[in-house]
């Protein structure tokens, strides 16, 4: 298990190494093509040192990689919060966002698909402003109102990925506890449940409820997120949130284990259609 920036360096290096090999170029030849020492190419490919966006572009040019989407994704992996180049919208909130959260938003903004199990609260991408405020307030006791306002703004701004072109493909499994927990009181919850029904009708959003009647399930170990990228599965990553940090899993066996777990949850969960009915009934107090 590694933290996000380390995972991204290693994934970037592995992808660049694979592209170099496909191009039939040795690391020494790559270094000569871009005017570097061979050791720099090796350090980047092993993830022991970071790469600037300009470095990545040079290597991709040398390897004849012209796919704009793939180039953009690899440049994103190279662009740390302190790197130069184009700033993303969340840079305006650097003073209030911890690095792990910024890294999560960066992955979320570039992913093609997101699969998530939520056992406690509504996924951030589907939260109403009122609900988001109550959840954020509860997460950090005594938070100043100014910081609370900023964090809620970030939560709502993240939701733009569901309206992008193309939009993020979201598949979410919600434990029934998410629907029953009275965050902010009955009024806030009623509006939140209505929002879930509205969002679930989007063609790229799949929402399924795991009812209490399903009994014990593999998701009792806790929530998780799987990010997938349309260019290559080698960049897929599992994110596990903790109180003060996030952990990222990148190993093939970890990805396979969490993918199998998510698929098992889909089998035990209500169908998308029945889930909508269940949420509507919960909102009505049935």
Automatic annotation (TrEMBL):
<dbReference type="InterPro" id="IPR043917">
    <property type="entry name" value="DUF5753"/>
</dbReference>
<protein>
    <submittedName>
        <fullName>Transcriptional regulator</fullName>
    </submittedName>
</protein>
<dbReference type="GO" id="GO:0003677">
    <property type="term" value="F:DNA binding"/>
</dbReference>
<dbReference type="Pfam" id="PF19054">
    <property type="entry name" value="DUF5753"/>
</dbReference>
<dbReference type="Pfam" id="PF13560">
    <property type="entry name" value="HTH_31"/>
</dbReference>
<dbReference type="InterPro" id="IPR010982">
    <property type="entry name" value="Lambda_DNA-bd_dom_sf"/>
</dbReference>
<dbReference type="InterPro" id="IPR001387">
    <property type="entry name" value="Cro/C1-type_HTH"/>
</dbReference>
<feature type="domain" description="HTH cro/C1-type">
    <location>
        <begin position="16"/>
        <end position="70"/>
    </location>
</feature>
